[in-house]
Amino acid sequence: MTSNIKINPTKTNPTQDSLSVQKYESDHSSLQERQREMQVFFSFLQIDNQNFNPEQAFKSLCNYIRTYKRILYSTVSNIVYDITDDDNSGIQGSNPDRFGTLLSNIEKLVAYTDSDQNIAIHKTAAASDEERRIIDETKKAVWKIWDHVNLAHRQYNVLRQSDAEFKRRFDEQIRDSQESMTKEMNSQLLTIVGIFTALAFILFGGISSLESVFEGLRETHLLKLLILGCGWGLGMLNVVFVFLFCIGKMTKLNFKSTMSPDATFWQRYPVVCWTDFLLIALMAILSWLYYCINRNGDGWLDCLIKQSPMWVTIIGSVVIAISIVLCFMKLYKATKAKVGDEDE
Questions:
Q1: Do 267 and 342 form a contact (C-beta atoms < 8 A)?
Q2: Among 75, 208, 209, 298, which is most buried by a count of CB atoms within 10 Å?
């Protein structure tokens, strides 16, 4: 009987998985042991200077080199960082200068290994050439540890940022931006207040001033009211314009229609110019109509109008119309910005 069971060749072998897990756990355990042994060696270096024994520290490092071959410099850096943190924390313990003690003991160990006599004693006691090689490797490791301890301490001092140091640097970096932002906010606030003040001036001051104009609505001719209204609008427009112009000077903001340095007043403020033109043109037309309708004087123009009222009215209207058209054309040319001068 043929079996229908198929074997998947890509399936991982359970035995291989088990071996991989065991290898990982073994390496991880070895790493922890190395870190622990390195900390044991540094515990000898943190003993008070009077009680420090360089020979004992040398033997501890020699045992470490014999077992693990190489130094874990990351662990050395972490130990130096922790010691320096304690020194800078401000908490005065039994040893307020732990790094000073550490560095002093390492220098004593360096001096111990630099003595040929001390190294010769260890080599004489060694049982094999391998042991004597380990002693030479330990002597080199002492110098490397001294060098790395100083490097780690220098890195800590250069890269460390306490809260006070961070605040100081932050304040220095943000001071200029803060001043610029404050000035900009003040100018914008002043601009907003000025605009609302101008609007309030138009709404309330303008309405109150118009009350006196419309009080005599029944007794005053309509054309006269229109002329007074145009005059009122002309005055209010220019008052608001001057007000906003002063606000722009104080806040260093502008409402120009073009930023070209060669632009004329008419090109920079065409809205105001055109509005003034329309109001003045309308006032001229209304004034002429009002004069023609209500002439009752003895001047030469009145006498001329009495003799030929139609021709004088027509000619006067044509003259005013031509004057308005000519002023329109001149103002159009004056306010027309050149290509490239527009404010983008």
A1: no
A2: 75
128-175 pLDDT tens trace: 888 888 888 888 888 888 898 888 888 887 777 666 667 777 777 777
Decide: 152 and 81 in contact? Cβ < 8 Å: yes
* Total-model pTM: 0.44
Rounded CA-CA distance 234/200 in Å is 17
Nearest one of 63, 19, 21 to 41, comparing CA atoms = 63
Tokens standing for residue 75: 């662990």
The widest CA-to-CA distance across the chain, in whole angstroms, is: 147
Structure tokens that stand for 24 in this block: 């990982």
In angstroms, the CA 20 to CA 175 distance is 57
Q: Residue for token digits 């290509």? A: 339
Amino acid at 264: T
User: Is pLDDT at 44 greater than 70 in this prediction?
Assistant: yes
279, two tokens = 């109001």
CA distance 281 to 169: 64
Contacting residues for 32 by C-beta, under 8 A, at least 6 apart: none
Average pLDDT of the chain? 75
List Cα–Cα distances, 269 to 94, 338, 340, in angstroms: 79, 14, 17
Domain map of the chain by residue range?
A: 24-162, 181-255, 261-339
Burial 179-188 (b: 16+ CB within 10 A, else e): eeeeeeeebe
CA distance 268 to 257: 5
Residue entry with tokens 């002693």: 135
- Residue 161 CA, chain-centre distance (Å), reads 21
CB-CB contact of 140 with 70 (8 Å): no
Spatial contact of 35 and 73, defined as CB atoms under 8 Å apart: no
Sign of CA dihedral 190, 195, 199, 205: positive
